[in-house]
Amino acid sequence: MKKNILVVGSGGREHALGWKLSKSQSVSKVYYCPGNGGTINNLSFSINDFSKIKSFALKNNCIVVVGPEEPLTKGIVNELSDSISIFGPTKEAAQLESSKSFAKNFMRQNNIPTAEHNIFSEPEKAKDFVYNTNKSLVIKADGLAGGKGVVVCDHKEDALNAIDSIMIRKDFGNSGNMIVIEERLFGKEVSIIVLTDGYTIIPMATAQDHKRIYENDKGPNTGGMGSFSPSKIISNDIFNDVINKIVKKTIHSMKKNANPFVGFLYAGLMIEKHTGKPYVLEYNVRMGDPECQSIIMRMNSDLYDYIKCSISGTLDTLPPISWSEKPAVCVVMAEKGYPSNHAKGNVIYGLNSHFGPNVKIFHASTIRNNNKILTAGGRVLGVTALGSDFNKARSDAYDSVRKIHWGADNHYYRKDIGLDT
Ligand code: AMP
Ligand code: GLY
């Protein structure tokens, strides 16, 4: 019997996951909670209203697919999995992302390569440590901080200021009750994402994102201004090293600790410049956004089969995922001013232009209002193209971007997405 899907979340990642699932022969209807202006069958309840999500999914024969970390961290899988098929890690397993001290201790106990670290719950002791070291440091709030709780320090002053901000001023609330002070690593950053049922590991295609707001990786960090797949810097050797020495160890150690991890696991890594070895900077317990948009464009296999078998613990019955040889590029169109102050509520024009069969416009912060689509936040659209090579994928993505606007000068996008980094 065909199933319905309920995608939890409202970003470009969730639009891409739902779009791909809607193409499956096994899926009848895809609902989104709450979805965005580009998705249909939107439900108006919050991503954290687990009882409404549960009763809707029960009544409508839905498999629940959770996009963002917040409901995972709050235990949506723990609350629903007795009566519903739900894809994602439990809140205990989601600590790999929600608690940096948990993740660091886990890595240390299981010999997973990562930077040296110390954990502090008292600001004075943390400051003493800073005064007494001559290493370059990174200061991290223990809990979730919307990607803003990490300070990479050039000087001791930066570290002391970060301790004040996180632990004393509590700029990230209780997420700053503890901090991790880490040795700073230097090298190239890459990420590798896999799908797992807690035992079998199926890698996703490699991808890279562009985190900074301006071209050439200048300016403040953002949620991600674009992505491309495959990665241009993950060689086969690095890939195999990461899968064998990091990802397999992570998944098998979580299982051994009676904490099996089911879902997408994202390992954020630094390839250390002197040794060429990968070190884990962070885990995410979900797909990357906007990496997901580029990855999904290249997926030939039926995503539904992989999600279903992850939930039932039978991923070992499936072959590796088949990927298009063609690269994909996703250009994020944002409100001008993002990631600082920016407008919203602008009418978006050009969405009905002819974009061609290899282009998909994934919506993020948009809403539908009387047949118009309005901007609703910082990152608005992820214009994604699949091309015979990177140049073609880039030119198709940018040709499509130029057909879309909201006012002459209100939107912003980086011009160098998919170029060598
Ligand atoms: P995290 O959320 O822990 O990945 O940190 C966010 C960003 O901070 C990473 O993507 C890196 O750019 C940087 N970062 C984190 N840890 C380190 C480290 N030990 N050395 C250098 N940069 C780091
Ligand atoms: N693009 C990085 C992330 O999703 O965390």
In short:
The chain folds into 4 domains: 3-88, Rossmann fold (3-Layer(aba) Sandwich); 116-183, ATP-grasp fold, A domain (Dna Ligase, domain 1, 2-Layer Sandwich), CATH 3.30.1490.20; 186-317, 2-Layer Sandwich (D-amino Acid Aminotransferase, Chain A, domain 1); 328-412, Alpha-Beta Complex (Glycinamide Ribonucleotide Synthetase, Chain A, domain 4), CATH 3.90.600.10.
Explain what the structure shows.
With 421 residues, the chain is of the alpha+beta class. Helix content is 28%, strand content 27%. It has 12 helices and 22 strands. Strands 11, 14, 17, 18, 21 and 22 form a 6-stranded antiparallel sheet that branches. A 4-stranded parallel sheet has the order 2-1-3-4, sandwiched between helices. A hairpin with a 4-residue loop joins strand 9 (187-196) and strand 10. Helix 1 runs parallel beside helix 10 and helix 7 packs antiparallel against helix 8 (156-168). The radius of gyration is 21 Å and the shape is globular. It starts with a strand and ends in a 9-residue tail after the last strand. The structure holds adenosine monophosphate and glycine (GLY). Adenosine monophosphate binds next to strand 6, strand 7 and strand 16.
Topology record:
Blueprint (H helix, E strand, L loop, with lengths): L2 E7 L2 H11 L4 E8 L15 H10 L2 E5 L2 H5 L2 H5 L5 E2 L7 H4 L1 H10 L7 E4 L2 H9 L5 E5 L8 E3 L3 H13 L10 E5 L3 E10 L4 E3 L4 E2 L2 E3 L3 E4 L4 E4 L6 H21 L6 E10 L5 E7 L6 H7 L5 H10 L15 E8 L23 E5 L2 E4 L2 E4 L3 E8 L3 H12 L9 E2 L9
Parallel strand pairs: 1-2, 1-3, 3-4
Antiparallel strand pairs: 5-8, 6-7, 6-8, 9-10, 9-15, 11-14, 12-13, 14-17, 15-16, 17-21, 17-22, 18-21, 19-20
Helix pairs in contact: 1-10, 7-8
This protein binds adenosine monophosphate and glycine.
